[in-house]
Amino acid sequence: MTDTGHPTLWGMLRGVAAQTCALVAPRHCPCGQEGTWLCQPCTKLLETAPCRVESCCDALQELSAARVRDVELGDLLLPAGVDHTPLLPVLALGEYGGDLQRLILAWKNGGMLHLGARIAPALAPAVARLVEGADPAPPFLVPVPSQRSARLRRGEDHTAELVRAMECSGAGHALLLRARPTTAQEGQGARQRRTRQILLRGRAAREAGRQGAPVVIVDDVVTTGSTLRGMHQALTSAGMRVLGAVVVASARVPAQSAASERTG
Ligand SMILES: [Zn+2]
Predict the structure, then answer these.
(1) How far apart are the C-alpha atoms of 104 and 249, rounded to whole Å?
(2) CA of 43 to the centre of ligand 1 (A)
(3) Which terminal Cβ of the chain has fewer Cβ within 10 Å, N or C?
(4) Does residue 171 carry a pLDDT above 60?
């Protein structure tokens, strides 16, 4: 049906619908700015260049093989275990705090799913940086599996939706794997306890593993990196090549990028 025959009626209906929507969901930015879904300063938060944050993620640090023994440096005796190499590169748009935190919370829990369409293209440069020099082909984008309870509570899987939107913006191919996050058992070593065990299942995972597919892990916020570590472990054991991870925000960012964000 077209509205050409009844412009007045349809016009009226549209007006009523728009007013109703405005009453139900007045347009406002997560920062509180009214009259817009995403204000200019908040848009800028997403347009910032991604920064490397893996050095701030405790669960991603590996003890370097070169430093398993004490090292003498002049008068200094450096104890073993001071050198750490991160397991994988992690890129974030900024520190999890202030307006960026409000934006993420509104997107995840506040029913503002439409923000995913704004976040997705902002993450594309981060994916491109991870791919640089690795593969000419676009990588597969793998969202971290959300807990079933969280999915049921929110009614959707926002990270999977984000990855689909990233595919639309040309960052790579969405690879939605069936995965079951499990919590590590009591009595295991410290390393196991700080790693979320993730079990991949299904044909898509087997197929991508068989091809040694290049993948980028996608998540909303990184804190210690234990989930990323679990995903890295699961994807690598399945046979995939993990190029790194891309997140919207990091609980901590290196001092240098925090300073440049404040001044810039
Ligand atoms: Zn705003």
Answers:
(1) 8
(2) 7
(3) N
(4) yes
Specify whether the CB–CB gap between 239 and 212 falls below 8 A. yes
Tokens 């058992």 belong to residue: 185
For residues 96-130, one letter each, b for 16 or more C-beta atoms within 10 angstroms of the residue's C-beta and e for the rest, the string is beebbbbbbebbbeeebbebbebbbbbbbbbbbbb
Residues 105-113, mean pLDDT to the nearest whole number: 90
For residue 241, report the phi and psi dihedrals to the nearest 5 degrees.
-100, 110
Strands 76-78 and 90-95: unpaired
Sheet containing 173-174, strands listed edge to edge, beginning at the edge strand earlier in sequence: 51-52, 90-95, 241-250, 214-222, 140-143, 173-174
**One-letter amino acid for residue 239 of the chain:** G
Domains and CATH numbers, the chain: 28-263 (3.40.50)
Ligand 1 centre distance from Cα of residue 38 (Å): 5
Q: What is the pTM of this model?
A: 0.79
Q: How far is the CA of 32 from the centre of ligand 1 (A)?
A: 6
At 199, the pLDDT band (50, 70, 90 cuts) reads confident
Q: Please state, as a whole number, how many other Cβ atoms lie within 10 Å of the Cβ of residue 83.
A: 15
Using DSSP, state whether 141 is helix, strand or coil.
strand
Say if CB 31 and CB 42 are below 8 A apart: yes
Average pLDDT over residues 13-36: 75
Nearest to 129 by CA among 171, 100, 173: 171
Tokens 């969202």 -> residue: 143
Give distance in angstroms: CA of 15 to centre of ligand 1: 27
Considering only 39-53, 68-82, 128-142, which range has the smallest mean pLDDT? 68-82
Q: How far is the CA of 76 from the centre of ligand 1 (A)?
A: 50
Interatomic CA distance for residues 78 and 251, integer angstroms: 29
